[in-house]
Write a structure and sequence with these properties.
Elements (H helix, E strand, L loop, with lengths): L1 E9 L2 E8 L8 E10 L1 H7 L16 E9 L1 H7 L6 E4 L9 H4 L31 E4 L5 E3 L6 H21 L7 E5 L3 H13 L3 E6 L4 H10 L3 E4 L4 H8 L5 E6 L4 H10 E9 L12 H6 L3 E4 L5 H13 L8 E6 L3 H6 L10 E5 L3
Parallel strand pairs: 8-9, 8-11, 9-10, 11-12, 12-13, 14-15
Antiparallel strand pairs: 1-2, 3-4, 3-6, 3-15, 4-5, 5-7
């Protein structure tokens, strides 16, 4: 019996391949993938622009949820699941022994890696990515059961969208009651950031985007943004007008645009915080470092989420599930996965979130 998966041999080189279905033992399991989310990282991986650790050959896809199809007894007890359980799978595998894993930062595990990014499919049993009919649940996988009210659509948003928004907006940005925040980029994480900032008590939420982001900016307003602005020469003046001339307390960049990153110090107040989350695809941004120093602006880089953020996100998103109902706008069969990747950045004005449905 075989499993179909999208196999990447290198940049811009991918095709469906049949992979032998693995034998499952006491400590591991097999997931039937119901949905796999597509994000900007997948675009950079496919086009060879990803700056992080990458495993090749690769089955991409790191936003994963589905149904447990096979499970060993020890694995079932460890994860609190059984055959038929609906689950979301964190992209990061954890060895539990290295320094990073022991401090809760499995995204920096030095022994293993992450599904769909750094776990090479050359390593048996090969099913290390979400763009496949099945995913191998390794002993070091982080498996999270979904509540009955949590749909698969919400399930793919929790581990890598809502959890990132919680960590970047709240933990790194420090947004709290009375804060003003500018979110640069109305993609899925930026939109989830609006929900998070509102829940944290932000007084002023501004979202900026491009002219092609009209639908997403309107969605930001529905989710709780006070003001939406178009990125351009007038952005600094508009932000100052919204903040009595001071600038916002926190700028969170999830766009990855070097142009947006470069102007962020002009949009934040004295002693404000800039959170850099978007990946630019190996491009360098020119920052006014004198201004950063003279205004004592804090610049924080953030990379993804940790285990506690995912657990918080499960509760947070499930309690507010209706706010996330419109995020998934585009669906693709497995044989159209490349189309799903290419639609991101193609200026599709209807796009919010694309997903792959491997078994349709």
């Amino acid at each position: 019996m075989s499993v179909r998966a999208l196999w990447m041999d290198g940049p811009n080189s991918a095709a469906l391949r049949d992979i032998e279905r693995p034998q499952i033992g006491d400590e591991d399991g097999l997931l039937r993938v119901e949905l796999a989310g597509v994000c900007g990282t997948d675009v950079k991986i496919y086009h060879g622009q990803f700056a992080g650790r990458l495993g090749m050959p690769l089955i991409p896809g790191h936003e994963i949820c589905g149904v447990v199809e096979e499970i060993g007894d020890s694995a079932a007890e460890r994860w609190g699941v059984e055959v038929g359980s609906r689950v979301a799978v964190d992209s990061f595998l954890t060895c539990g022994a290295c320094e990073a894993c022991m401090r809760g930062d499995s995204r920096y595990c030095t022994t293993l890696g992450d599904y769909g990014v750094s776990m090479s499919s050359a390593l048996a049993p090969h099913l290390w990515g979400g763009f496949a009919e099945h995913l191998y649940l390794a002993p070091g996988a982080q498996v999270h059961p979904l509540a009955d009210t949590c749909s698969f659509e919400l399930g793919i948003l929790v581990p890598a969208v809502v959890s990132n928004a919680l960590r970047w907006i709240g933990d790194a940005g420090g947004v709290t009651i009375g804060s003003s925040v500018l979110i640069q980029g109305p993609g899925p994480i930026g939109l989830a950031g609006v929900v998070v900032a509102r829940a944290l008590g932000a007084e002023k939420i501004i979202v900026s985007g491009l002219a092609s982001d009209t639908k997403r900016l309107a969605m930001a307003k529905r989710l709780g943004a006070d003001t939406v602005l178009k990125f351009g020469p007038e952005l600094q003046e508009a932000v100052k007008a919204e903040t009595a001339g001071h600038g916002v307390d926190v700028v969170v960049d999830v766009s990855g645009s070097v142009e947006a990153i470069a102007v962020a110090p002009l949009l934040v107040r004295q002693q404000g915080v800039i959170v850099l989350a978007g990946l630019s695809g190996k491009k360098a941004a020119a920052l006014p470092t004198d201004l950063l120093a003279l205004q004592e602006i804090t610049l924080k880089g953030v990379f993804s989420h940790d285990r506690t953020a995912v657990k918080r996100a499960l509760h947070f998103a499930t309690e507010r599930h209706e706010l996330f109902d419109d995020f998934v706008t585009h669906r693709y069969d497995l044989d159209r996965t490349i189309d799903a990747i290419e639609v991101i950045g193609a200026n599709d004005t209807e796009l919010v979130k694309a997903v792959v449905t491997p078994l349709t």
